[in-house]
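W.,

You were right to be curious about this one. When I first looked at the sequence I had no strong expectations either way, so I just let the prediction run and decided to look at it fresh. Below is the sequence, 214 residues in total, followed by the output.
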Amino acid sequence: MSESAPRPAEQFADFAQQGEVAQLGMFVFIATEVLFFGGLVFTYYIYRHLYGAEFAIAGRDAKLMLGAINAAILLTSSLTMVLAIEAAAADRQRAILRWLALTVALGFLFLGVKGWEYVTDYRDHVVPAVNFLMKPGYGGPAELFWVFYFIATGIHAIHLTIGIGAVLAMMRFARRGRFTPVYYAPLEVVGLYWSFVDCVWLFLFPALYLLGRS
């Protein structure tokens, strides 16, 4: 075990108890985030029901291919994050860094694709209050679709950026030998957050990108 390996905090009996409390804290945080995103998605579906035709027309202009690519990227990043946790459990220190680095790279790749998508959205004149052109068949509610689109995907991108920062912090801990088969709870906690961010995209993708394409 590395000399810099962590010891249980004074209020915990052992590493197992400390890890359980850490995971419980993350589950509570995720629950609050579910309430936030759930309210946003629920409101979106109310307006989608009220203005189904207009939302469907606007939804056809969402970049389905880019959205699908980003879905594949995030699903792959969930795999690499799990492999990093498994490497920690098996005390494979170099593998931890390798899988975490791949997770970070995939996170940045997602943001790069999303950034390019925003550029193309701007060129297509679908950015409300900035560069929006009322196209034939759109109608007023169509702009509301794009308001939801940019709010939802923008907040998701912020959450992913935070996740990348957290994974980078885990890489720093890994280099210092902080993770052992006995204690790697911080890595599990970050993995829970990363999986949550991925799951949010799996809800946003069909809601925003598959609309009006059936």
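Here's what jumped out at me. The helical segments are 15-50, 52-59, 64-89, 93-123, 140-175, 185-209. And, maybe more interesting for your project: The chain is about 75% helix and 0% strand.

Coffee later to discuss?

I.
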